[in-house]
Amino acid sequence: MRWSNAFIPTLRDDPSEAEAPSHRLLVRAGFMRQLMTGSYSLLPLGFRVRAKIANIIRQELDAIGAQEFLLPALHPAELWRASGRWELMGEEMFRLKDRREADLALGMTHEEVFTQLALELASYRELPQIWYQIQTKFRDEPRPTGGVLRTREFTMKDSYSLDLDEDGLDVSFEAHRNAYQRIFTRAGLSAVQVVASSGAMGGSASIEFMVRAEVGEDRIVFCPACGYAANVQRATSTLAPIQDGPAGTAPQQFPTPGVHTIDELAQFDVEATPQRQIKTLAYMIDGGLVLALLRGDQFLVEQKLADASGGGGLRPAQPDEVRAGLGASPGSLGAVGVSTIPVYADLALSGRHNMVTGANQDGFHLRGVDLERDIAVTAWADLREVRAGEACPVCGGALEVWNGIEVGHIFKLGRKYSEALGANVLDPEGKPRTLVMGSYGIGLERTMAAVVESFHDEKGIVWPMAVAPYQVVVSLVRTDDTATVAAGESIYQGLIAKGIDVLIDDRPQRAGVKFADAELVGIPLRVTVGPRALAEGRVELVTRSGGAVEEIGTAEVVEVVAQRVAAGIG
Questions:
Q1: Three-state secondary structure string covering 180-216
Q2: Under a CB-based contact definition with an 8 Å cutoff, are residues 210 and 406 in contact?
Q3: What gap in Å lies between CA 419 and CA 115, rounded to an integer?
Q4: In the chain, what is the straight-line distance between the N-terminal and C-terminal CA atoms, in Å?
Q5: Is residue 446 within 8 Å of 217, Cβ to Cβ?
Q6: CATH code for 470-567?
Q7: Contact of 292 with 281, CB cutoff 8 Å
Q8: Over the stretch 131-154, which tens digit does the pLDDT of each residue have?
Q9: I want to staple 502 with a disulfide (CB 3.0 to 4.6 A). Which of 336, 427, 477, 495 is the partner?
Q10: Alpha carbon of residue 255 to chain centroid
Q11: pTM score of the predicted model
Q12: Where are the strands (E) in 18-142, listed by range?
């Protein structure tokens, strides 16, 4: 491609609305443009990068026996109602009606549609199956952020495994896990596998592939000593034991006028340190009030509460809902004597006594509370947020907590969708058996952005060779010099003949402008052809990563560059 003919609209200044480096650089370097909030046009450079990521994905999935499909983005509501997700997905699902007033949705994901296709499988002899597609998805994100890191329209690779039993699912899940690691490694990413919540997808297990980045929306708990890694929604840690002293015989009520917070209570009563308090949080789940109990110095992870309850539509209860259910305002709440409202208690409270909590009467608290004796706990669960420095649950080392970008997520769905839609096959005994499924996703634009977050500097993007829009740019210092143009053209054609993605910068611009654009766009290798070096039979080879500059003979530069490209050096 000739730069003079290419559409590469680079910008001198950063876009005002961009905060994430990937957002700023992908717009500045001419890879994408915003159409509206959460919706971006991929320009030719962006399309080329996404196509290279897609090619890597296809190669690795084909290697594990996957077959590619292309499914509709427009779905009938009946399928989603059958799985129970029409209501569960809430406002994030784009819904519409056709001219016959039939309910439709734009696909957020395709478990239901692939499961419907699986109805055509008849026998265990047809299993296992791995099906995938690379297709546009739609989600009405409440807060699209970070350019293409979180959008309302995006490209996803979603694949689905179909097996006869859990042993087969384990094999398919492991095949995907290994394929994903190869995909991200080939794209240049250091992706960490973390234990995650399955959320609205359901199922028994899930693993996220996370790339460490300051702009990442996920919080990852990681142990550098042993490699334990989990999303904060699933992470746990080992806490130091607390000595509560002798247990009392019954809770004692005492007045706490004007006390509404953990810190205020600790100041009011010096013995009521946050570690000795029971924090009571009121939530609505499936339209009903529930209580979550934590140690006063701990914080709730809402997804953990949702997972523990198995319910949906979780949100904090409003003050009027709290008062209607408990007779008190937030700040005076407790679970002592509560019998009609589900109570979920964090495991860190197990066995604790001599605790302080709200009395469900404004202006009063209770001391001497024994969890097992005084509170009817519906279920004990890990509800708290892990903090940096706490002890690793595996090896006892100090945990780190960092931000990550989720580039991939794999789920063991089990029979959730196949049972709902009736996807069965006959087993070896001729009896119907419900299919066991897995679901596996990769966001392509998000992967592209994660690469930029991982590889950029003050000059622009630094693409790894495997996903760079062009592997080499041949920059002509003087387009009005016949020898320079002829030599540059010869090198350009020689690289094309080697099968290399090459761009020749033949624009009538100053050399400094060309070099700056090449660095901003992030092309791994630059061959600079200018009259002065050419007179000595040489050209300049610049490596974008690290900025190394070499002088190479014109007769050998094509071969040298081809070797560097093959080795992924850029």
A1: HHHHHHHCCCCEEEEECCCHHHCCCEEEEEEEECCCC
A2: yes
A3: 10
A4: 19
A5: no
A6: 3.40.50.800
A7: yes
A8: 999 999 999 999 898 999 999 999
A9: 495
A10: 47
A11: 0.90
A12: 32-36, 39-42, 67-68, 74-76, 95-97, 103-106, 129-138
Q: Which of 251, 271, 259 is nearest to 335 (CA)?
A: 251
Read off the tokens for 82. Answer: 């059958």
Q: Which residue has the tokens 């919706």?
A: 39
Q: How confident is the model at residue 88 (pLDDT cuts 50, 70, 90)?
A: confident
Quick one: CA dihedral 503, 506, 512, 514, positive or negative? negative
Distance of CA 559 to the CA centre of its chain: 40
Omega cis (within 30) before 128: yes
Structure tokens at 368: 């001497």
100 by Cβ neighbours in 10 Å (0-12 / 13-18 / 19+) ranks as: exposed
Burial class from Cβ neighbours inside 10 Å (0-12, 13-18, 19+) for residue 49 reads buried
pLDDT tens profile 485-524: 999 999 999 999 999 999 999 999 999 999 999 999 999 9
Q: Which strands make up the sheet holding 95-97, listed edge to edge?
A: 74-76, 103-106, 95-97
At a CB cut-off of 8 Å and minimum separation 6, what does 563 contact?
none
Domain coordinates in residue numbering, the chain: 21-235+401-452, 252-381, 470-567
Secondary structure letter of residue 543 according to DSSP: E
- Domain with residues 252-381, CATH architecture: Alpha-Beta Complex (3.90)
CA atoms of 330 and 280, how far apart (whole Å): 9
Measured CA to CA, the distance from residue 270 to residue 356 in angstroms comes to 12
Within 64-165, residue ranges assigned H as helices are: 77-83, 85-88, 111-117
